[in-house]
Amino acid sequence: MFALLLAVGLIAPAQAVCPVDEDVLGELVCEDTVSGDLSVADRSSLDWTYSCGAPYADLAQAGPDHLYTYICPDVGFLRVAMTGATCDFDLYVLDDTCDPESGCRDGATDTAPDPVIVNTTCEAPGEMLNIIVEAWAIGSGICTDGNYTLQFDLEEGVCDVGTGTGTGTVTEPTTLTADEAPYATADAPNTFGASGATPGENVFFILGARPGIREVPGCPGSFINTSRPIVLGSATADGDGNAELSADIPAVASGRSVNYQVVELSSCAVSPVTGVSFL
User: Fold this and answer.
1) Has this prediction a pTM greater than 0.90?
2) Which among 36, 180, 190, 215 is least surrounded, fewest beta carbons within 10 Å?
3) What is the 8-class DSSP label of residue 3?
């Protein structure tokens, strides 16, 4: 999966544009599991009709709902699961437009299966998806209160924790360096720098919010310091071995601290890890 990340190029994650009065209950990544409760007393309701959904599309949802966001770590298949739902709840995945018509990726609207599964696709590393739990049974008066658990399939697609993870020692060469950027700004373009690269070679800029290590594809024994790399993009090193990349950072990064590294594939060089905190 990391090999595919490196081939994607510049990534500019987009911010979700759901209604401002709709609370985002969690900014999720693959390893997260969250539980929620919905009842007739909940006032939060988007009152939308979703264009997607299987087996029932174009289904009006008048009940309360819960909204989560998810940042794609890679391009590929994503399976979202809702388990233990005690009412007939539906599950939707919308793209970063949060539009229930044109932005509706996939949905599960069957009558109370367990688990409720949505199979969807991440189209770009860093892409933001909106995951919405809709309390259809409460909106239709069939149920008054229900709970659920939301999680991801950790053995499939972009959430496959067993793919490409390394167990060796992280390589920290003395030449290639990720220029320190102790503070950056969320919901704004940011500039990241690197030095000590081979002139004329591509340098890839990587952020990682999850602990662990992952082997660099085609570079046995070279590892980066995250199990879930997000590649911001790449830049060509100038004659002095310096490279610079400007990338948009989404608003959800505010308050988060992540690892920052750079990689030069042609030489399998990996910089020491440095940290960056988004304000």
Assistant:
1) no
2) 180
3) H
Query: From the centroid of its chain, how far is CA 97?
Result: 15
Per-residue pLDDT, 161: 65
CATH number attached to the domain at 8-159: 2.60.120.380
The helix (H) or strand (E) run that includes residue 202 is strand 202-208
Contact 152, 80 (CB under 8 A): yes
Question: Looking up tokens 């007739």, which residue turns up?
Answer: 40
Least confident interval from 90-99, 121-130, 158-167 = 158-167
Q: What share of the chain in percent tops pLDDT 70?
A: 86
Distance of alpha carbon 60 from alpha carbon 47, whole angstroms = 7
Buried b or exposed e, range 20-30, using 16+ CB within 10 angstroms? eebeebbbbbb
Among 179, 208, 207, 206, CA closest to 194: 179
Q: Could you give the CA distance from residue 68 to residue 33 in angstroms, rounded to a whole number?
A: 12
Across residues 192-210, what is the average pLDDT? 90
Residues 251 and 205: beta-carbon distance below 8 Å: no
CATH label, 177-278, candidates 2.60.40.730, 1.20.200.10, 3.30.360.10, 3.40.50.300: 2.60.40.730
Q: What is the largest CA-CA distance in the chain?
A: 69
Q: What is the CB neighbour count within 10 angstroms for residue 220? A: 11
Q: What is the pLDDT of residue 12?
A: 33
Q: Where are the domains of the chain?
A: 8-159, 177-278
Which residue has tokens 């070679």?
A: 201
